[in-house]
Amino acid sequence: MSEFPEGFLWGGATAANQLEGGYQEGGRGLSIADALPGGKDRFKIVSQPDFDWTIDTDKYTYPNHEGIDFYHHYKEDIALFAEMGFKCYRFSIAWSRIFPNGDETQPNEAGLKFYDDVIDECLANNIEPVITISHYELPLNLAKRYGGWKNRYLIEFYETFARAILTRYASKVKYWMTFNEINSAAHFPVMGQGLVPSTGANDKKNVFQAWHNQFVASAKAVKIAHELRKDIQVGCMILYATSYAYDSNPVNQLANLQHNQDFNFFCADVQVRGAYPTYTKRLLAEYALTFDDLETTDGDLALLQQYPVDYIGFSYYMSSAVETTGSVTDTVAGNLMGGVKNPFLKASDWGWQIDPIGLRIALNELYDRYQKPLFVVENGLGAIDKPDKNFYVEDDYRIDYLKQHIEAMAGAIDDGVDLMGYTPWGCIDLVSASTGEMSKRYGFIYVDLDDQGHGTLARYPKKSFYWYQDVIKHNGLAEKSE
Description:
Layout: E1 9-13, H1 16-19, H2 42-46, H3 70-84, E2 88-92, H4 95-98, H5 109-124, E3 128-134, H6 140-144, H7 153-169, E4 175-179, H8 189-193, H9 204-228, E5 233-239, E6 243-245, H10 250-273, H11 280-285, H12 298-306, E7 311-315, E8 320-322, E9 331-332, E10 339-340, E11 346-347, E12 353-354, H13 356-370, E13 374-378, H14 396-414, E14 419-422, E15 445-447, E16 459-461, H15 463-473
Parallel strand pairs: 1-2, 1-14, 2-3, 3-4, 4-5, 5-7, 6-8, 7-13, 13-14
Antiparallel strand pairs: 9-10, 11-12, 15-16
């Protein structure tokens, strides 16, 4: 196994709210990410009944406010990506940088100009931009005033936002995604849907309504994009965690089948196939709901059918195991969800089970189901890096993780899967979405910044930087990379 297909999109991925900083510069408004406290308890804090999006700097720290200051360092960072040989760079556009409150009719020109500069810098370095329209950064006003994505008004606001940035950048940007990890709301709707308990996060009707509104908004973005440029590619983006029944007990096998439908496939089924799947009835019934309980229109359903996405982007960090009899008590953590411990797998410093073969399985499952191009837009190892006195990190553990996952992708390509590209997550160290920490590092580039916000913000290539540079140079894992 040596080379990947010609034109394969090697690169890296980030999100505006986790690295940009400049949170009150250039006319930017506040986003929900700005109200998420830093630290391991951030999800516990926002899950409290009285959490109301208030930013309390006396009580909490907010590392997203500064990120790694990409807002002022983007030229330096993109130059480092180019040095690695990136063919593409996946990033997101901060909605509140373009529409500070989310409900304005006219965009903020200073925000548009910033992304003009970022996109032009990418193109000047022969890096194809891959843009996520909405990546866990809903304008705070839309969460506080409108109650998040359960409100149909947000379809209109998103359409205005999508039209503004697609019109501005479509001639320069071919690859887009509509919502980051849209299915993550099944477990935690705060980041993807802007819902917290005080605005109905614990009522599944609101979650399903929010999803429906997002599906419609996504279809509208596809429509706008295709009208602007014939060869534009707009994808959905899901969190995919390959799932296994813990054993051959038919009860666990059925539970795993339904888990896959409900979590791994539901959102993609609607966005890729253009219609709600047949198992929607069973899924809603589990929460004492029917489809009639949701506010939908015939026009919505026609739009979904007419404007499905062009490809499937997905994150893959780990797999999970399903056991429903209660005979297994050992549990593990995970990407917004945990599960029972799989005795065949090792885990990361944060307890996420490492399963490269699961990525090959994921690619086969998704391609067999949809027959549309796939794009691994997040994958990586969050770890505690310990630099030497020169800030050099020998991260062989990260190289080993990525190497095994690249080998799994090559295997899937040999299986016949149409794979577009690979953008490992957090290609430069940034603030973790799950914990709000800098110490949970993913990058090929070390950033001198700690969890308390102390540091010079200087950038230093890690050992993995040079390894990945070699992988891209050889369009895969050449012998000297092994």
